């Protein structure tokens, strides 16, 4: 498959009284054309910061891009000026967020907001833009789009508003859509409909999706590849099949056990990994997951584990994959 986005060693931080505190640490991910990569982890793991850094919006959020590269279609976005980035964000990369209401302007009809985007990116006249806006509303599954186009955001449900936001994103014909928890604020039925819509649109126009979610169930449905993030770092990465059939980091195992009804999940009771993500600048020594890990060994508190290859195109950052250490610990693969 052809690579669209290749992030290498992306390290970001924020300035605190104690100096620079890292928010993400050497993030590396690859997204192929027409595919979906899910970045999964609990809130506070650095998923959103990663996407803001890719889009170069982190500067506006008070953060710093400290190190690394973001190759998009062979060009390094970290070397672009903000003016060049504005054009890339408007024409090639679109972003949608959790709360559709905050992305929409309450004083303009939804049709006008889509039309405005079309005028900007596709040089259309007013009438052409309006007609295309109505077509986009139809495309994102809004019934009676001619009537809906004239309505204001507060007249539409949350799910309808997220469809409008997706329509605005499509107005720039993006090759890459970054979707940050796009269904988290919606009720379960509507969630499923929006995910279906994203999948259909992807097949239709061939865009790639970087989907950020805390929900392994969403990743199971949507992802070609999954990257699991914990406390600012990728701890496991692989194809969706590999991640679900052979989870190889104890954190991933914990996330899978928290899916209701998933094989290996602990009955009806929602299993949550005990403890919480350490705050920025409060990482433990050694493996960043060691205070919460049911398998933590001495070496885990002393030395950061390297990234082990654990299968075909599948990696995990965990000492249990060092053969000698694993055998001393359990005599077998102790991850499960
Ligand atoms: Fe757990 Fe050690 Fe693996 Fe970290 S390196 S996840 S503490 S077993
Ligand atoms: Mg977030």
TrEMBL record:
Span of domain ABC transporter: 5-256
Transmembrane regions listed in the UniProt entry: none
SUPFAM superfamilies xref list: P-loop containing nucleoside triphosphate hydrolases (SSF52540)
GO MF entries: ATP binding
Keywords for the protein's UniProt record, in alphabetical order: ATP-binding, Cell inner membrane, Cell membrane, Membrane, Nucleotide-binding, Translocase, Transport
CDD domains: ABC_NikE_OppD_transporters
Matching InterPro entries: AAA+_ATPase, ABC_Ni/Peptide_Import, ABC_transporter-like_ATP-bd, ABC_transporter-like_CS, Oligopep_ABC_C, P-loop_NTPase
PANTHER family from the UniProt entry: ATPASE AAA-TYPE CORE DOMAIN-CONTAINING PROTEIN (PTHR43297:SF14), OLIGOPEPTIDE TRANSPORT ATP-BINDING PROTEIN APPD (PTHR43297)
Name this polypeptide is given: ABC transporter ATP-binding protein
